[in-house]
């Protein structure tokens, strides 16, 4: 038999290609081939074949496909025959194959041979072997299986493996002086990964080294254009450096500086202040990032030509040429719904090309009906993230954030749009401090302080003129329909108060009733005239409540009810599933109702399946829900909503760490709450990432609206996710909220958990006094409650804190009673974790034999209970101990086993951590190239996660490159 999976899934028997059957059967074979020689659990097969909602018959279907595959590969052979290629093992199945039979195994064999040749000082042979390995690639792994199956990490992980080897092969080929062997296969990989700058840079270097300079220049141009079109960014330093080497150098005696030939300004880095005063004083740098945050321009924008001309005149011509220009601030004010944001966004898009360093945008929610004004602190945190600062490196104080923000913008030409501000004080910390930037501010209030103190140029925006209002209706309803009824149009314009938002809502409703005359629209507006408090004024024609109430009354009762209840959601956006839970309705029904609301412009679907209110419409919905729905109805809706978020978050946390999810006394969800079925670790990670802002808001919202138990339980549930992602400041803030919620209930267990999680977060941020205080209080509370596992978890947190400060003996003093508590409660996962942590503490003390003994115990115990994530963590510790004992091959074996598990369970952060350790061992062996490859792979993951550890690893790589004699002293 012969198989391929590096591209189309195919199989041959005696050189006759086999027909592999239906898609699911082909996918099953692909999975068994990718995992050849290893048992694949039945549960994993189901997860791969049905990424979402497996049928109740899934296991039977798998058994049927297995039988078909066995008969296909070995016709006539009994199922359990000796020497069978497909065998049943450990609750799953294993396909036996060797490197001669399977292209993936052949690829890995050639890769390892190439690495050994490179390590042995035979770079030419290594380059040849790498080329042979890559030549086996025929396209994305498992081509031909269903797309949702092919996207599973078990297959995409092989693609990443191939990509890493392509880069490694290019480096080896360049070092070997025989790059001509590689261009064709490298071009195939580069075409598949057009946005991978490292790979494109390697291809440019290989083409240049083989004399194909014109092709190399074409590769750069295509890469540059692709990055601009698809990501809105310019080439990074590695790609620009490869391009520079293609260009002719100016003569040394040429007068004046050399002409700049780069297509974009060189990348620059900016100082990032340390998080805490006790942090290292060495400057920390953040890569220059070109944010592009402007909301989309409105296609049906009309009028405002005079205003656009006025604000356009504020920009000096120097902004186009790059010459120094003053800091320009424009303050646009006016009543709600008058179109301030629309005008600001239109102008910003017109001039964005004059600010090549990007655009920042924040809706400050100054008049949000829920009262959730975005503070300058929150806005600065968002801007710093957008400028490339990891969450954990953002300073804690407002002044420090402002200083860092202005430092990052110094020397840049950036456009900043601050929408919906309360007053001048609200935006002052958000103003850039250096010339060359444009700041546009919108507010319902005139910003006199900004005008007097900062020289802002004011623009008070009034309603549209009658002609502009007429044009707005023409844009939305068409010339013929508007021209046919001029009197009705004039009435509509007058009753809408010439407010752009009101006109848009009325036009949307009219557009959905094309057979109705506009006179009927005007008559309904006249009939329902009323007042909207937010728009109260002397002239009733400027009151917009009539427009909103008419649009609302046109809804069927179910859509109207959903519109009202969604005002109870904390925002900033609501998913379809969450909306269904708020309303207590099935998903299918909710989708249809949401489509009705977006069609009427009462909601905006700003991303697929995610909805937002305009602030005026939220205010109107909030009025309605208070007036029309009893307190009991509102409370039930909030109860369903908090149950939805809490129980879905628990599901996600359990999928990501099934043996580490904190047991909590949760009440079952209401039957109509509708928690989401996630089904896989990837979907759990994606859900938590997408809902993070909503979940953080929900913790405070639950506390403030009578659901303190859900508040602290949700915060504790989010602990591991926020910690692994490095969102330590958010973690501390949300756990403080949880502590207040538990105290309001006099819930001692809730207080204990909140003190523990808050103490750990404070320790992450280096605030050790606060950390010890919270952890010691948690220990007292858990002891009073006779919660042994809670005490053990807290003792582990105290031990971790001691190890962080170098107090290793004190850490052991905490770990020993923690282990005893877990043994007393027969908590095997806790015992295994503590054994590993004790072993790690011995590593820190330099007691490597002791460490090895404890960590091996942890491996065996984790394996016995089926905790693969815990087993991988302990294997990593075993490898680390072996490394420091000089037993490098045994260390690498442990690391490889740990990496295999982390990749299977998609634990990206711990995969990166083990790759770093593996690179340290490679370096100690003298295998510098492979060490750098491991570190580089880890760095890619950490950057993808936007984790603070990325900056630490960048520093180590920089130190290694600068060191004339690199050693394993870089391990840490």
UniProtKB/TrEMBL annotation:
DNA-binding region (UniProt annotation): 1-97
The organism's place on the tree of life at top rank: Bacteria
UniProt keyword annotations, A-Z: DNA-binding, TPR repeat, Transcription, Transcription regulation, Two-component regulatory system
Ranges: TPR repeats: 752-785, 872-905
InterPro entries per record: AfsR-DnrI-RedD_regulator (IPR051677), BTAD (IPR005158), OmpR/PhoB-type_DNA-bd (IPR001867), P-loop_NTPase (IPR027417), Sig_transdc_resp-reg_C-effctor (IPR016032), TPR-like_helical_dom_sf (IPR011990), TPR_rpt (IPR019734), WH-like_DNA-bd_sf (IPR036388)
Regions of compositional bias (Pro residues) in chain numbering: 255-268
Domain spans labelled OmpR/PhoB-type: 1-97
CDD domains: BTAD
UniProt region (Disordered), positions on chain: 247-297, 660-679
Record SMART domains: BTAD, TPR, Trans_reg_C
Similarity remark: Belongs to the AfsR/DnrI/RedD regulatory family.
Protein name per the record: SARP family transcriptional regulator
Originating species: Streptomyces hygroscopicus
């Amino acid at each position: 038999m012969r198989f391929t999976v590096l591209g189309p899934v195919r199989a041959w028997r005696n050189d006759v290609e086999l027909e592999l059957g239906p898609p699911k059967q082909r996918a099953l074979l692909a999975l068994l081939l990718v995992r050849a020689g290893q048992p694949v659990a039945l549960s994993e097969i189901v997860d791969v074949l049905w990424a979402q909602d497996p049928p109740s018959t899934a296991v039977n279907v798998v058994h049927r496909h297995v039988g078909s595959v066995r008969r296909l590969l070995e016709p006539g052979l009994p199922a359990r025959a000796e020497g069978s290629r497909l065998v049943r093992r450990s609750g799953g199945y294993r396909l036996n194959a060797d490197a001669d039979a399977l292209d993936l195994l052949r690829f890995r064999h050639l890769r390892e041979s190439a690495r050994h040749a490179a390590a042995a000082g035979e770079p030419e042979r290594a380059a040849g072997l790498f080329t042979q390995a890559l030549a086996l690639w025929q396209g994305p792994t498992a081509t031909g299986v269903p797309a949702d199956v092919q996207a599973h990490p078990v297959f995409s992980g092989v693609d990443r493996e191939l990509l890493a080897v392509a880069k490694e092969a290019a480096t080896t080929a360049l070092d070997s002086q025989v790059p001509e062997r590689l261009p064709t296969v490298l071009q195939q990989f580069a075409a598949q990964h057009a946005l991978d700058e490292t790979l494109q840079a390697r291809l440019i270097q290989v083409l240049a080294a083989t004399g194909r300079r014109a092709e190399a220049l074409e590769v750069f141009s295509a890469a540059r254009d692709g990055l601009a079109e698809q990501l809105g960014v310019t080439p990074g330093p590695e790609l620009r450096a490869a391009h520079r080497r293609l260009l002719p150098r100016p003569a040394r005696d040429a007068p004046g500086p050399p002409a700049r030939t780069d297509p974009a300004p060189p990348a620059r880095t900016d100082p990032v202040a340390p998080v805490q005063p006790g942090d290292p004083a060495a400057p920390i740098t953040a890569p220059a990032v070109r944010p592009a945050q402007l909301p989309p321009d409105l296609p049906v924008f009309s009028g405002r030509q005079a205003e656009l001309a006025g604000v356009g005149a504020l920009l000096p011509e120097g902004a186009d040429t790059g010459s120094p220009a003053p800091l320009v601030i424009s303050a646009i004010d006016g009543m709600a719904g008058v179109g301030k944001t629309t005008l600001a966004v239109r102008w910003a898009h017109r001039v964005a090309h004059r600010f090549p360093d990007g655009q920042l945008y924040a809706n400050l929610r100054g008049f949000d009906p829920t009262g959730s004004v975005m503070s300058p602190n929150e806005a600065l945190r968002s801007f710093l993230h957008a400028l490339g600062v990891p969450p954990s490196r953002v300073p804690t104080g407002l002044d420090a954030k402002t200083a860092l923000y202005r430092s990052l913008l110094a020397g840049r030409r950036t456009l900043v749009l601050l929408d919906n501000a309360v007053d001048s004080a609200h935006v002052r910390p958000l103003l850039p401090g250096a010339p060359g930037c444009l700041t546009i501010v919108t507010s319902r209030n005139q910003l006199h302080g900004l005008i007097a103190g900062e020289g802002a140029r004011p623009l008070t925006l009034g309603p549209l003129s009658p002609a502009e209002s007429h044009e707005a209706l023409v844009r939305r309803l068409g010339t013929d329909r508007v021209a046919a009824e001029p009197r009705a149009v004039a009435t509509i314009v007058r009753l809408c108060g010439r407010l752009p938002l009101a006109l848009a809502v009325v036009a949307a409703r009219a557009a959905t009733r094309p057979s109705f005359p506009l006179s009927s629209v005007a008559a309904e507006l006249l009939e329902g005239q009323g007042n909207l408090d937010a728009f109260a004024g002397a002239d009733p024609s400027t009151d917009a409540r009539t427009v909103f109430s008419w649009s609302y009354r046109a809804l069927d009762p179910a859509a109207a009810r959903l519109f009202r209840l969604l005002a109870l959601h904390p925002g900033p956006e609501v998913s379809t599933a969450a909306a269904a839970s708020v309303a207590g309705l099935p998903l299918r029904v909710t989708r249809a109702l949401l489509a009705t609301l977006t069609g009427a412009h009462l909601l905006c679907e700003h991303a697929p399946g995610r909805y937002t209110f305009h602030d005026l419409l939220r205010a109107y919905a909030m009025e309605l829900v208070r007036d029309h729905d009893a307190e009991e109805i509102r409370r039930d809706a909030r109860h369903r909503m908090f149950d939805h978020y809490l129980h879905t978050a628990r599901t996600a946390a359990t999928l990501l760490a099934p043996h580490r999810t904190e047991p909590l006394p949760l009440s079952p969800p209401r039957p109509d709450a509708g928690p989401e079925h996630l089904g896989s670790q990837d979907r759990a990670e994606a859900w938590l990432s997408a809902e993070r802002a909503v979940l953080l808001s929900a913790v405070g919202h639950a506390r403030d609206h009578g659901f303190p138990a859900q508040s602290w339980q949700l915060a504790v549930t989010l602990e591991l996710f926020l910690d692994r992602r490095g969102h330590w400041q958010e973690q501390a803030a949300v756990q403080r909220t949880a502590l207040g919620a538990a105290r309001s209930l006099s819930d001692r267990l809730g207080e204990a958990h909140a003190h523990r999680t808050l103490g750990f977060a404070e320790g992450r941020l280096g605030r050790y006094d606060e950390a010890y205080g919270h952890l010691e209080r948690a220990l007292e509370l858990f002891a009073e409650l006779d919660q042994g596992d809670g005490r053990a978890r807290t003792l582990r947190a105290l031990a971790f804190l001691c190890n962080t400060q170098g107090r290793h003996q004190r850490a052991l003093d905490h770990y020993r009673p923690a282990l005893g508590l877990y043994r007393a409660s027969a908590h095997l996962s806790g015992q295994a974790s503590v054994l590993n942590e004790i072993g790690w503490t011995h590593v820190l003390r330099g007691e490597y034999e002791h460490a090895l003994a404890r960590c091996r115990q942890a491996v065996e115990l984790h394996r016995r209970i089926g905790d693969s994530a815990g087993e991988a963590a302990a294997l990593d510790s075993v490898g680390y101990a072996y490394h420091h004992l000089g037993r490098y091959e045994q260390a690498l074996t442990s690391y490889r086993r740990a990496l295999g598990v982390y990749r299977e369970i998609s634990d990206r952060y711990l995969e990166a951590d083990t790759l770093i350790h593996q690179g340290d061992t490679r370096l100690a062996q003298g295998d510098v190239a492979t060490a750098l490859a491991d570190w580089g792979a880890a760095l890619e993951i950490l950057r993808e996660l936007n984790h603070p550890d990325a900056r630490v690893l960048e520093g180590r790589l920089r130190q290694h490159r600068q060191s004339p004699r690199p050693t394993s002293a870089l391990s840490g």
